[in-house]
Hints:
The protein is mostly helical. The protein has 6 helices and 3 strands, in the order αβααββααα.
Amino acid sequence: MEVVWSLGEATAAAIIEELARSTTWNHRTIRTLLRRLVEKEILRKEGQGAGSVYKALVPRNARVKSEGKSFLERMFQGDAASLMLHFAKEAKLGPEKLARLRELLDDESDEANAGGNS
Length: 118
């Protein structure tokens, strides 16, 4: 999907060429993935044969949000605090990044509390 999002639209050959730079997937695997993404209505295929073009039907930010929610539910039973603690520990964040994370969380907490008082 990142390839299609970055290019806007692409032929299967262009997608295969781009993915060959960063993966060990063979062309059949990529074509299967493209077919499944079309079936799931995440991609749209326009045209037939070698000249067909794939376009994203779902914007990147919407897909990331959906996948993030799904991951949170599957792995942390919806508990965002547990997810944040896990990643903060595993990422071995330095003092500057931890301070920035605290600021962001404080800002969110302030906004949530202000919204509840309105």
